[in-house]
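Design job #97: recover the sequence.
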């Protein structure tokens, strides 16, 4: 049986990543391994747009926003940074899938990802981060499905209603 020396978990800031963060924290506790939550971000329009019109002030604001999303996700999923669990949060500028693969590159790593919920159109337009990680990782990958509540809300169409109401 292989030992787990680090638990790396992908954090997107969306509700879909929360079950993966919770599960990764429990695995890290059980194996007495550090938890490394990784949030990857990119400038709006991608790196090409940012290189053509660089804006250092905006770049700093985007990095700060990514840091706040990571802290909010950790607070929501596991109540913040528990003192008994060594946590090494990472905020990385880059493609989410590639960034997670690079973070989970040591022997003994376990990569935990959320499978999320995507519409048929979203699946057709781009391969998901979870699919990328499953196809490219050199360490074990654990894919955590959405919570039953998330699936139930999606089945009844409440997520779309909620999003539509938030803009009113």
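Job complete. Output follows.
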């Amino acid at each position: 049986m292989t030992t787990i020396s680090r638990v790396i978990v992908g954090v997107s800031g969306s509700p879909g990543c929360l079950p993966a963060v919770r599960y990764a924290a429990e695995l890290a506790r059980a194996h007495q391994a550090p938890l490394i939550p990784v949030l990857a971000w990119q400038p709006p329009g991608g790196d090409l747009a940012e290189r053509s019109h660089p804006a250092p002030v905006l770049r700093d604001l985007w990095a700060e926003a990514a840091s706040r999303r990571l802290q909010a996700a950790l607070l929501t999923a596991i109540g913040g940074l528990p003192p008994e669990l060594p946590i090494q949060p990472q905020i990385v500028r880059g493609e989410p899938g590639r960034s997670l693969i690079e973070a989970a590159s040591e022997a003994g790593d376990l990569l935990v990802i959320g499978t999320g919920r995507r519409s048929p159109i979203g699946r057709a337009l781009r391969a998901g981060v979870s699919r990328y990680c499953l196809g490219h990782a050199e360490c074990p990958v654990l894919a955590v499905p959405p919570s039953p509540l998330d699936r139930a809300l999606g089945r009844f169409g409440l997520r779309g209603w909620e999003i539509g109401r938030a803009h009113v």
